[in-house]
Amino acid sequence: MQTLTLTRIAAVAIAACALPAIAAEWKPSRPVEFIVTASPGGGTDQFARVVQSIVQKYKLMPVPAVVSNKGGGAGTEGLIAAKAAKGDPHKLVFSTNLAYLMPMITKVGYSIDDVTPLAVMAADEFILWSYADGPYKSAKDLIAAARAKNGGFKMGGSQSKDTDHILTRQIEKATGVTMTYVPFKSGGEVAVQLAGGHVEANTNNPSENVSHWRAGKVRPLCVFAKQRLPLKDKIAGDMSWADIPTCKEQGIAVDEFRMPRTVWAMGDITPEQTEYYRKLLAQVREKPEFKDWLRNGMQTDLFITGADLARYIANDKTANKVQFSQDGWLLKD
Questions:
Q1: Is 184 helix (H, G, I), strand (E, B) or coil?
Q2: Helices (H), the chain
Q3: Whole domain around residue 175: which residue ranges?
Q4: Phi and psi for 300 in degrees, rounded to 5?
Q5: Distance between CA 33 and CA 165 in Å, rounded?
Q6: Number of domains, the chain
Q7: How far is the C-alpha of 198 from the C-alpha of 330, rounded, in Å?
Q8: Fewest CB within 10 angstroms: 67, 152, 180, 309, which?
Q9: Residues 99 and 50 reside in one and the same domain
Q10: 3-class DSSP state for residue 27?
């Protein structure tokens, strides 16, 4: 009897040794590079750095996160770098919808299939701004001046054929005016150029121009939203975000214009690695610092992942394809 029992115990032990080890949840094993598809100071750079600071403050990863800026070619430099890092789970790309729009309008050296979509984490509102010492007290004044200048009006933006340029084309179509679009390297740079009066207007998001507004260097004229922004705290003098009229109120028939803040992993990473980063970003957005960043930059809280994100991207590409075709920007298949 004892011999039989010992035999059974030995058999169980051998069987246990033969079982495959339970795989531990994947985690990064070396510093994770946050590739920013813009120059320092712009909205995408701010986005990546607030995520970095939250990850490190709350120790959400076992390794550091390091930000690197690769903003050349309207952000395509960063995505080309991502293509070259195929299969590397220690790199993320911080971008906008330009990640998938740029391949539609210019030869960029990458396909959106070269990266793995992780999440949309916010959507930027857009405001029409002028410089404070300029003659434009309202969007109506600005459009009237642009019409009179007949192409001589200088609208600053962050790079050619990017989101600012897309919106500028919508303004021109809605009002029948012609503007000269002047591209810069980032939203931060164009904010400085507007504050100095080197261009007459820009369409920066709130976070890129707010410091210049507080300093009395720029003036918000209207917001491209269906309704006025909700925050009523005073920002500059007696004005709050809620005091800015919608552009439709000012005679510019663009109902709404928003830009998603996107995060991507490299192509051909494993499902476990993809899920790790999705969970990480979900944790980040729940932290008070991220909520403060959304509120202070007047950004819409928008979190989309998985199949919903795939549908969102497909719908956005379809909507923009119509405009690109009309403007002659669309690459031929």
A1: strand
A2: 2-18, 43-57, 76-84, 98-105, 139-149, 163-175, 187-195, 206-214, 271-285, 288-296, 306-327
A3: 127-243
A4: -80, 135
A5: 29
A6: 2
A7: 30
A8: 152
A9: yes
A10: coil
Looking up tokens 């932290």, which residue turns up?
A: 287
Which amino acid type is present at position 67?
V
CA distance 153 to 200: 7
Q: Is residue 19 part of a domain?
A: no
| CATH code, domain with 207 | 3.40.190.10
Indicate if 117 and 265 belong to the same structural domain.
yes
Fill in the amino acid letter for 269. I
Question: 162 and 93 in one domain?
Answer: no
Q: Residue 231: what pLDDT?
A: 87
Stated as kind and residue range, the H or E segment containing 312 is: helix 306-327
**24 in a structural domain:** no
> What is the DSSP secondary structure assignment for residue 280, as one 8-state letter?
H
Which pLDDT does position 17 carry in this prediction? 47
- Centroid of chain to Cα 239: 27
In a shared domain, residues 218 and 267? no
- The predicted structure's pLDDT at residue 6: 43
Domain boundary among 213, 243, 273: 243
- E-strand spans in the chain? 32-36, 65-69, 91-95, 115-125, 127-131, 154-158, 180-184, 201-202, 218-223, 234-236, 239-240, 258-266, 299-304
pLDDT at residue 158, as a whole number: 86
Query: Is residue 175 packed enough to be buried (19+ CB in 10 Å), middle (13-18) or exposed (0-12)?
Result: buried
Q: What is the reported pLDDT for 114?
A: 97
The stretches in the chain having pLDDT less than 70 are 1-24, 332-333
Residue 246 DSSP code: B
Q: What is the pLDDT of residue 333?
A: 58
| Residue 219: how many other CB atoms lie within 10 Å | 24
Instruction: Assess if residue 40 is contained within a domain.
Output: yes
Residue 65: CATH number of its domain:
3.40.190.150
Whether 212 maps to a domain, the answer reads yes
185 lies in the same domain as 100 = no
